[in-house]
Amino acid sequence: MGQSQSNMTKQPMIRVLSRDEAIQALQEAEATDHFRGDVRMDPVNNAARKELFYSPVPSVPRVDLSKVNIRTPIRIIWMDSSAEGGMPHTRWPDLVCIPVFWPEFSLAKTILHESIHVDQRMRANVWIEWCIREGWTLVEESEIPERWLGRCRLNPDTMKYRFWAYQNRWVPLPLYEREDKPVLRDVHVFWWDRTTGVLHKDPPRAIAEYIESIGTPEHPFEIAAYKEIQL
Ligand SMILES: [Zn+2]
Fold this sequence. Notes:
Shape: globular
Number of helices: 9
Strand order of the largest sheet: 1-2-4-3
Strand content: 15-25%
Structural class: alpha/beta
Number of strands: 9
Bound molecules: zinc ion
Distance between the termini: 32 Å
Order of helices and strands: HEHHHEEEHHEHEEEEHH
Radius of gyration: 18 Å
Number of domains: 2
């Protein structure tokens, strides 16, 4: 008993939700972040999720989370393995949704990454200031050309402050490879040059090295989470 108490004081709390709790929490999340509703309103994003289920699993797997390192308290929901194409993600305010069958060897790293996204929701202003210090500027959605905007994957972790320009110029856009048959995981991050209007397949030299090992550097919040930045 002494040991578990000392663990609790050292480490922010993780709580795993039952299915009933998870259903309730996801309803509350939707009322605030509107992620699923926004997906339904967006033809390409909706098509990419057409065959996928988005529901918590009936019974939560037994996984040891006692050594998982997190940045802020979180609640975990185990989701159907097809939810968001099997990609872990967060929902308002502190929910971390993980597909059941997520490999246990990478669970700790994944939960830390997602807890950084929860922290970004909780302390948005602190993270926005970090983005600005790193050389990013928030870009209005209306500035993104319609033909690219309609092909951008919607990500619940980044959708509230959706577009940013690096050095006032380079805007990463996670575009579905195929607009007619979008596949949720089949996305490439292009770089739109807002000074020339040209869309580049490769990152600009100014940032290429900084994001070298990052699979989808689609947003400064994503870059921060991959780099496990702590503020
Ligand atoms: Zn992420």
